[in-house]
């Protein structure tokens, strides 16, 4: 949420951009090949990151709805996505039991963090950008250093 919009992901493989003021659907973003399972909007409201059962992440421009990048590397459903406060990295979690750190500029996977014994349910990044937190069906929460 950027104060003006909210973005939702759906089983119909799309994202929808909604006006918080009117409740109207402003745009439908298409590109995933399977249901959308996670959505994250950057604090400045310019980018949206989505994860899907198609095992990919997509980076979208909120204003135009254009998909500017598709990131591949997970072996199973992407279950959580977020962006570091600096805006330089995207973090994703997956049912493949990994957390991945991606360069937003190059679309490269910079790191793959392994250690969970079961599917991931969520990921987030600390405010200072130094740590990733992941939760899993293995009943654990892990804190990963990005240093």
Structure description:
By secondary structure, the protein is mostly beta strands. The protein has strands spanning 5-9, 14-19, 25-30, 36-41, 47-52, 56-61, 67-72, 78-83, 89-94, 98-103, 109-114, 120-125, 131-136, 141-145. Helices cover 0% and strands 56% of the residues. The strands form 4 sheets. It has a 4-stranded antiparallel sheet with strand order 4-5-6-7, with no helix packed on it. Strands 8-9-10-11 form a 4-stranded antiparallel sheet, with no helix packed on it. The two termini are 29 Å apart. The mean pLDDT is 95.
Which terms summarize this structure?
147 residues, mainly beta, four-stranded antiparallel sheet, 14 strands
Distance between the termini: 29 Å
Biggest sheet strand order reads 4-5-6-7
Q: Got a strand count? A: 14
Q: Give unreliable regions as ranges.
A: none
Which radius of gyration do the C-alpha atoms yield? 15 Å
Task: Assign the structural class, choosing from mainly alpha, mainly beta, alpha/beta, alpha+beta, or little secondary structure.
Answer: mainly beta
List SSEs in N-to-C order.
EEEEEEEEEEEEEE
Main β sheet profile: 4 strands, antiparallel
Describe the oligomeric state of these chains in a short phrase: single chain
Percent range of helical residues: under 10%
Layout: helices, strands, pairs:
Blueprint: E1 5-9, E2 14-19, E3 25-30, E4 36-41, E5 47-52, E6 56-61, E7 67-72, E8 78-83, E9 89-94, E10 98-103, E11 109-114, E12 120-125, E13 131-136, E14 141-145
Antiparallel strand pairs: 1-2, 2-3, 4-5, 5-6, 6-7, 8-9, 9-10, 10-11, 12-13, 13-14
